[in-house]
């Protein structure tokens, strides 16, 4: 059995994504709930934090839902042979490249949140927003690095 066939029958990139992205969906739901509660019941700092948590949670949820849907579809294509070994390799490499690029963006989010805190030291709502961005960016940085580290590679044998 070659590596590609083994990849098709055991754990492959698309099965990995189907297992991984529900965790992002759970984080998004947590963020939305915490964000709404903080925004409704909190002081200015918590309102700022809550706005960021709810907004980022909504976006993360949309991304996670589409990722799971796409991974299910691609798993079916892989099982039926519609995705060839070179195409699988290309998609696996692209996935890693995308999550590593996202990790760089996450670092930018963290710096952006820090800038907001420093730029508006007296505005508690903006400071809360800054902390919300930092927390969400830090989570996403860890998330993207874990995806890049543990996602199956794209190598195959003929």
In short:
The chain contains five helices and no strands. The protein is an all-alpha fold. It has one domain.
Give the tags.
158 residues, mainly alpha, 5 helices
The overall pLDDT, averaged over residues, is: 91
Tell me the series of helices and strands, N- to C-terminal: HHHHH
Beta percentage is under 5%
Largest sheet: none
Distance between the termini: 10 Å
Rg to the nearest angstrom? Answer: 19 Å
The level of helicity is over 70%
Low-confidence stretches: 1-9
Counted beta strands: 0
Alpha-beta classification: mainly alpha
Number of domains: 1
Shape: elongated
- What's the helix count? 5
Write the layout of secondary structure elements.
Blueprint: H1 3-9, H2 13-41, H3 44-80, H4 85-119, H5 124-150
Helix pairs in contact: 2-3, 3-5, 4-5
Would you give an account of this structure?
The structure is a single chain. By secondary structure, the protein is mainly α. 85% of the residues lie in helices and 0% in strands. The protein is built from five helices and no strands. The protein is elongated and about 60 Å long. The model is unreliable at 1-9 (pLDDT under 50).
């Amino acid at each position: 059995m070659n590596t590609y066939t083994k990849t098709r029958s055991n754990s492959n990139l698309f099965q990995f994504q189907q297992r991984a992205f529900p965790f992002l969906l759970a984080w998004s739901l947590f963020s939305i709930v915490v964000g709404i509660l903080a925004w409704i019941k909190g002081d200015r700092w918590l309102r700022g934090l809550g706005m960021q948590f709810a907004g980022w949670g909504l976006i993360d949820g949309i991304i996670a839902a589409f990722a799971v849907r796409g991974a299910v579809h691609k798993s079916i294509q892989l099982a039926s042979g519609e995705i060839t070994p070179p195409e699988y390799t290309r998609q696996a490499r692209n996935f890693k490249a995308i999550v590593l690029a996202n990790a760089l963006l996450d670092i930018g989010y963290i710096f952006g949140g820090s800038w907001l805190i420093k730029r508006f030291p007296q505005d508690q709502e903006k400071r809360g927003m800054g902390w919300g961005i930092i927390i969400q960016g830090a989570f996403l940085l860890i998330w993207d690095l874990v995806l890049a580290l543990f996602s199956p590679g794209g190598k195959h044998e003929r």
